[in-house]
Specification:
The structure is a single chain. The two termini are 22 Å apart. The strands form two sheets. The protein has a six-stranded mixed β-sheet, with helices on one face. The protein has three helices and ten strands. The chain has helices at 56-59, 122-134, 151-166, and strands spanning 21-23, 60-61, 68-73, 79-82, 89-98, 104-114, 138-145, 171-173, 183-189, 195-201. With 203 residues, it is α/β, with parallel strands linked by helices.
């Protein structure tokens, strides 16, 4: 797993497995470099910048050519981000449960990294949405990337956005990837339990 830096070849036949996504457990901590966000991209919640105490390797959600890769966080101060989205689509799905006074009682966020060759990526994302909704979470999402230079990449992105709309999930969105300037999508659980989504581009 690394950068989805080149367009994949023709998709291989989909091989059913016990799950159509893989939940990755982070390993091997490493130092996290600093990075500035593009001024044209904003967080859904408008909250302060994300906490950077966790190691970079622990934070990064890579990709697989055969299935959706996802990581989930539930603790305040945690953050997850995709590796660079050259042709891949990044999706973050989160939710909060609130006390009667409006403060946050519980938070859960999952970040998904989707390669264009993956079949039916919406299944894993929809399953997470339904799981959170059934548990009483107020669900929202953010979508970024997708290969804007290829029809397959655009169709995958549009299909994910249509699914979110059909499920009644409010979502923010960042730009398509242009094949030249990679971007990432991150999600952070703030100290007050609220969720921040951030879409950053490298130049």
């Amino acid at each position: 797993m690394g950068l989805c830096a080149s367009k994949p070849g023709a998709s291989s036949a989909y091989q059913p497995s016990p799950t159509d996504s893989v939940e990755v457990t982070p390993r091997h901590p490493a130092a996290r470099p600093s990075r500035a966000s593009s001024s044209g991209e904003s967080a859904l919640s408008g909250l302060p910048g994300r906490n950077s105490r966790t190691s970079r390797h622990d934070q990064v959600v890579g990709f697989s050519a055969s299935q959706v890769v996802q990581q989930t966080i539930t603790e305040r101060g945690q953050m997850r981000e995709t590796s660079a989205l050259h042709v891949c689509t990044g999706v973050a799905v989160g939710g909060v449960i609130r006390h009667a006074d409006g403060s946050v009682a519980d938070t859960s966020v999952s970040v998904f990294h989707v390669l264009p060759s993956v079949s039916a990526p919406g299944l894993a994302i929809a399953r997470k949405i339904r799981e959170l909704s059934a548990q009483g979470f107020e669900v929202n999402a953010f979508v970024a990337g997708g290969d804007g230079t290829a029809q397959a990449g655009r169709q995958q992105r549009y299909a994910i956005e249509a699914m979110l709309s059909d499920l009644g999930v409010p979502f923010g969105k960042g730009p398509f990837s242009d094949g030249e300037s990679p971007q990432i999508l991150s999600a952070t659980i703030q100290a007050n339990g609220e969720i921040e989504y951030e879409n950053s581009r490298f130049f």
